[in-house]
Design goal:
Length: 324
């Protein structure tokens, strides 16, 4: 049974979060994020002596304006508005309200930021940097990176991998993702070799009589390596590899996995399944890699592009650097 966090919310908001957990399989992280967003909203409404059951459209508009006033990004505002809309749709369905005051609210305009991606050479350097430190951590970090880059896992999926998922040297990794949905992801040979080596060392790292259901156990309260600790270790590995740590995060390696697959000729549907995206539109952002590759190919190989470059070269005068 889930332990209810200490943050105090209205009865309506608590009922909504319980529905998200029970009916939609929301993860603990998603539940915590929704709780934080709703607590922020209700704090604002309390100053206006309003609650979810009584709030009107004007108050919600004022709330969104307040987010913009404090400099919150359009993406964060859009996320909070999504939570608000889900809450009021829930209240409408449950007949706790007769109207939806969020229905007429406009979403902020979002750009389409391209995912940060490492090059293949940079990923190789990162993995090599961790392999050089195997004696210090038993190869744990090298194994984490091999799995992350080979399977494109979310960081929570990675650190909570059960031991049972890899005990039989699998060619396919069974991953339990968002909404408690399972998917199969093939493992590369380097990842399988790293896992096999880690399993031999892992047993010796546990104390006498100690057992753990996790592939990457920890003596902390969670029982496994935490997301925060892994992110910290990843920054340290970036420094060892000569890569700016600001460019590195677990999700950047997930982006690299998807982009490099598409660059190598994988089809979008297969990448969607391996990433565990519910909507292929989410996966389509990675096609920017193909767009850039095709654009460069046309500029380099197309006869008209080559002819145009030769014409430009002929019009240059000696010492002219204006078009360089």
């Amino acid at each position: 049974m889930r332990k209810r966090p200490s943050a105090t919310l209205s009865h309506e908001a608590e009922a909504f979060i319980e529905m998200m957990a029970a009916e939609r399989g929301a993860s603990r992280n998603t539940e915590a994020a929704y709780r934080s967003d709703l607590a922020h909203l209700e704090t604002f409404l309390a100053r206006r002596k309003q609650k979810p059951r009584t709030v009107d459209e004007a108050a919600l508009r004022a709330y969104l304006k307040s987010l913009d006033y404090v400099g919150m990004t359009a993406r964060t505002v859009a996320r909070r508005l999504s939570v608000i809309r889900q809450l009021f749709r829930f209240l409408l369905v449950e007949r706790l309200r007769e109207d939806d005051p969020s229905s007429a609210l406009d979403s902020p305009r979002l750009g389409r930021p391209l995912p940060k991606v490492l090059s293949r050479a940079e990923v190789d350097c990162l993995i090599e940097a961790t392999q050089g430190k195997e004696a210090g951590d038993g190869g744990r970090m090298a194994t984490l990176l091999e799995i992350l880059y080979a399977a494109g896992l979310r960081v929570t999926e990675l650190v909570t991998l059960p031991l049972a998922a890899v005990e039989r040297d699998p060619t396919m990794l069974v991953v339990r993702g968002k909404g408690d949905k399972e998917r199969l992801v093939p493992l590369s040979d380097p990842a399988r070799r790293a896992i096999a080596a880690w399993l031999h060392i892992r047993a010796g790292l546990l104390g006498d009589g100690e057992t753990s259901r996790y592939l990457f156990p920890s003596r902390g309260r969670a029982g496994h390596l935490t997301r925060q600790r892994f992110a910290q270790l990843l920054k340290e590995a970036a420094l060892e590899a000569g890569i700016d740590p600001a460019r590195i995060s677990p999700h950047v390696l997930r982006h690299a996995f998807a982009s490099h697959l598409l660059e190598g000729g994988a089809d979008l549907r297969s990448v969607q399944l391996m990433l565990g995206h519910a909507d292929i539109a989410t996966t389509q952002i990675y096609t920017h890699v193909l767009d850039e590759k095709l654009r460069a190919l046309v500029q380099e190989k197309h006869p008209l592009a080559r002819r145009r470059r030769r014409a430009v070269d002929r019009t240059r005068t000696p010492g002219d650097t204006s078009s360089r």
